[in-house]
Amino acid sequence: MKIGIIGLGLIGGSILKKLSKPGYELYAVTGNDETAEKIKNIAVKVSKDYDILAECELVFVCTPIRNTIEALDKLENVVTKDCYVTDVASVKEFVTLKKRPYKFIPSHPMAGTEKNGYDASFEELFIGAKWVVTPYDCRETDALTNLIKKLGAEPIFAEAKEHDKAVAMISHLPMYVSQCLFASALDNPLALKLASSGFRDTTRLAATNTTLAMDMLEFNGKNIESAMKNFVNFLNTLKDNYDSEILRNIKQKRLDMYSKDGKNVL
Ligand code: NAP
């Protein structure tokens, strides 16, 4: 299968590494000369130019969120109408506003780290992860979902609008809370010196790549604001009523949600 990947950062690089096996011909579009040198023995063709994608059967657009529409537009003049195209942007509704001349199926892997760039990518990134598929025009999703399974992930279908509300709660707001929690302790050197694993784990997302953080707010601001209101309601509930029954309930639900090796089992 001929597969194209645009943007060889954390997500695109991890897709490339995992699919670098017999049965796949990889075509990589990268603007970075160092990355191009590193992957020249993995991909069949590497270029800055989209033309190398002309014969691809499926293309992954793995650019920053803010560059996704530009990449999808450029592909209109390159790939055939039978080519499947997906983007991996963490926000989905904004990519569904235009009909495309190819088989476009927006998606979002629920896997990542706070790091970015090709050197941060690794082939096991998607193992055991959910990968949201949000079809709208093209309803033939097997080519993509089969590949998602090969990458080690589980395809989950959702409407783009519902996806954006959900990720605001479990991905985008946690990043802001993490940034605020970290910033709120910065004026206390003793607190920072004493901080151990609890503070480290709850502030991991404060180190999120800044481009991604800015894009999440710009492209999903309305949903993040609603999620924040919900969060503040719970903050006030617990402030006014720090009740052992409520806490036991929260604890049990949290324990039931993740396996011992940290995978979401819901
Ligand atoms: P990343 O590591 O920064 O990779 C993005 C890549 O896009 C860069 O390495 C670069 O690739 C290319 N790029 C940079 N600027 C560009 C521009 N102006 N125009 C076109 N391409 C450009 O970021 P990432 O974490 O992989 O994120 C990529 C996409 O995945 C985003 O849409 C993000 O929302 C989504 N996503 C991220 C995560 C996460 O946790 N990080 C999880 C799920 C989905 P080259 O150097 O090869 O040109």
Your description of this structure?
The protein is α/β, with parallel strands linked by helices. The protein has 2 domains: 2-158, NAD(P)-binding Rossmann-like Domain (Rossmann fold, 3-Layer(aba) Sandwich); 162-257, 6-phosphogluconate dehydrogenase C-terminal like domain (6-phosphogluconate dehydrogenase C-terminal fold, Orthogonal Bundle). It is 43% helix and 13% strand. The protein is built from 9 helices and 9 strands. The strands form 2 sheets. Strands 3-2-1-4-5-6 form a 6-stranded parallel sheet, sandwiched between helices. A 3-stranded mixed sheet has the order 7-8-9. The chain starts with a strand and ends in a 9-residue tail after the last helix. The model has no long low-confidence stretch (mean pLDDT 97). Bound molecules: NADP nicotinamide-adenine-dinucleotide phosphate. The site of NADP nicotinamide-adenine-dinucleotide phosphate has 26 residues, from helix 1 and strand 7.
Short description:
With 266 residues, this protein is of the alpha/beta class. Helices cover 43% and strands 13% of the residues. The radius of gyration is 20 Å and the shape is globular.
